[in-house]
Amino acid sequence: MISTIDTTPSSFVSQVLFDLSQGLDDVPDKYRHLVAQRDILRSTFVKTEFGLFHVVQPSTMYISIPRISTLTLDAFLAVDLTRAFTLDDSSFARFAVVEHGNGQVHGVLTIHHALYDGATMAMLTGDVLDALQGRPLAVRPPFRLVVDYIEAQDSALAERYWTTYLRGLPGPTCVACTSNAKNCAVALVETIQMPSTSALLKRIHVGMAALVSLAWATTLRRLLRMDDVVFGQVVSNRTIPVKDVARTLGCVISSVPCRVTFDKDNVSLLQAMQADNAAMLPYSLTKATVCKQWGVDDSAALFDTEVSFVNLAMVELSAVKESHTTCRPASFYVIELTVLPLTTDALCIQGNFDPHRISGTRARQYFDIMLDTLKSFDKGI
User: Could you give the angle at the alpha carbon of 276 between the alpha carbons of 114 and 268, nearest 5°?
Assistant: First the structure.
């Protein structure tokens, strides 16, 4: 993620809005109090001759909370997003109090994805609300425990696992094609109802994430005419053997290969994928860019699409909303799918794509077939 700062600095930046219309009493002091207890809000990155390092500032003296007046909130958000972050910033998270319109006021938390994942965003949003409303803050374990776990992993064992997992793969699974990058939407969003799926999955002891991955694999198989496909899948890593990792703030996710060989029926495939996901957990914090070099020609990317299944508890208070990001192109892969369960029977599916590497028409074709495949699964796996 940090590697994109020079080329596409805004790609991995999110903005979260907090309604401050009920009062502005001591907002800067309350936010600084939170920053003092949350090391990710004091985190930056430093490049040296030995590599890139995550550095936690020891104090809050560098933290500035500006109060800004602007005609519209959208105008501020656009400028703030363009500003993004650089390696000269003292922190990869910042907070501003923005007055706009007819006396409306919002707090804007701007944070780089290198510091958070979906679980962290939900917890951090709650922490900011608690701080602003003067409530006691939850005790959070340090992210260093996760770093120590990663450093303790045996890279040789990880390489052996991924080499075996990818062995025999006939070739890359890539969707990129010529595109003239005409002006077009770079994101597609749909909500689908799947009233029968939960009961079906419960009977075969498989989670919804596996079904979503199978649907994407089926889409790739149909359009690329391949029976052995691979793509990236985002792994939460919130069950790794680290004390209280579920309550830890930081970017714990990783992107690893998901391989599907169509040599059995869908139920058997789902059960095999579920078993694979459990087996790869000890090796899931291996970087996908490294994984893609094992078992394949180094000059070729193994895959250029990714699926993320985000299963989070929603923040209860309505004073929070995330700024509109669905209009952004894909950050890294040609197609990036994010699937969010709204209820046990409904999924929100967002597809972002890179218009320089695939046309809007072709991306829409992949997206629509994915939706049709999920709907067909609801009728019978």
Answer: 135
